[in-house]
Amino acid sequence: MLVNAKEIIKSAYKNKQVIFHININNLEWTKQTLLAANIEKKPIILGVSPSAAKYFGGYSVCYSIVKSLIKELRIKIPVCLHLDHGSYDDCIKAIKAKFNSIMFDGSRLPFEKNLEISKKLIEICKKKNISIECEIGRIGGNEDGIVSDVSYTKLNEAKAFKEIGIDMLAVGIGNIHGEYPKDWKGLNFSLLSQLNDELKMPLVLHGGSGISDDDLKKCINLGISKININTELQIANAKAIEKFVKNNNIMDNKNYNPRNLYKLSNEAIYHKVREILTKF
Ligand code: G3H
Ligand code: ZN
C-alpha cells in the first residue's frame, strides 16, 4: 500500500522508533527492498534522488515500477515513495508523477529563500496530502555529485521551519553523506538533544551509512524518526557484483545473462535491507 510518510513517521516519533529510508537505484534494488521490508513486516520509505529518477527513466517510470511491484509481489506493508534532496523543480516533477512524499533541499540557499520555497511547497503538499521534509544546516559529503561541508542546524531557523508546517526536518549534526572519513568528529548529540527538546517533531538523519548502532540508537532516543541509508547498500551491491565476476567466467553457464550476473547483488541487497530493518 502506498502511503505518505506523515502517519508512519508520527507514530515512530511518538514511540521512539525509526522508519528506514532506503535509496533505490533501479528495478532490482526496488524489488529486493520491497521483498525484504515485507518479510520483516516493517513500513519502508523508498528514497529516490533526482539523478536516480533520471537513471530510472523519469519520475513516472519510478512511480509505475514501485506501484506495479507492490501489486505483483503482494506487498502488504506501508510503502512511501519519497523524493530525496530535490530542488523546487524536482519537487514539482515528483508531485506530478504521484510521489507521495518529497524532500525539498534548500540547504545551499540563503535561509530566507529556503523558507520561502518550502512554504510554497507545503501549500501544494497539503492540498495533495503529500508529506514534506526540509533541511536546515547542511549534511556534509557528496550527494548526487554535489559536495558540501558540514554546517550545523541552527535552533532558531529550525523553529521557523516547524512553524510553517513541515512534517519532518533533516538536521545537520555532523552527519555526512557517503563514507565517514577517519578523522570524522562524530555526531553532535548535545545539539540533537536541544533540537529535540525544543522542536518536539520528527527529525531525520541523513548519511546513515557507517554510523555505529549505538550512535543510531542514541539518535532514535533523541527524536530521529527517519534514517536515510544509501551508501551501505551501494557498497554491498558493488561487492557482490565484484565477487561474482571474480569467481565466475562470464562466458560459462550463461553467466552473461543478467539474471545470473545480478544474482548475488540481488541477494546482497535483500539481506542488507533485512539486516538494517531488524537493527532496532
Ligand atoms: O539522502 C540519502 C542519504 O542521506 C544517504 O546517505 O549514502 O551516507 O547512507 P548515505
Ligand atoms: Zn541525504
UniProtKB/TrEMBL annotation:
Gene Ontology molecular function, alphabetical: aldehyde-lyase activity; zinc ion binding
Binding site for Zn(2+) 2: D105, E135
InterPro entries, alphabetized: Aldolase_TIM, Class_II_FBP_aldolase, FBA_II
One example of a Gene Ontology biological process annotation: carbohydrate metabolic process
Active site: residue positions: D84
Name by which UniProt lists this protein: Fructose-bisphosphate aldolase class II
Keywords: Metal-binding, Zinc
Entry-linked CDD domains: TBP_aldolase_IIB
Binding note for cofactor: Binds 2 Zn(2+) ions per subunit. One is catalytic and the other provides a structural contribution.
Residues that coordinate or bind dihydroxyacetone phosphate: G178, G207, G208, S209, N228, I229, N230, T231
PANTHER family on file: D-TAGATOSE-1,6-BISPHOSPHATE ALDOLASE, D-TAGATOSE-1,6-BISPHOSPHATE ALDOLASE SUBUNIT GATY-RELATED
Tagged with keyword Magnesium: no
Pfam families documented for this protein: F_bP_aldolase
Names of required cofactors: Zn(2+)
Recorded superkingdom: Bacteria
The organism of origin for this protein: Metamycoplasma auris
Source lineage: Bacteria, Bacillati, Mycoplasmatota, Mycoplasmoidales, Metamycoplasmataceae
Positions of Zn(2+) 1 binding: H85, H177, H206
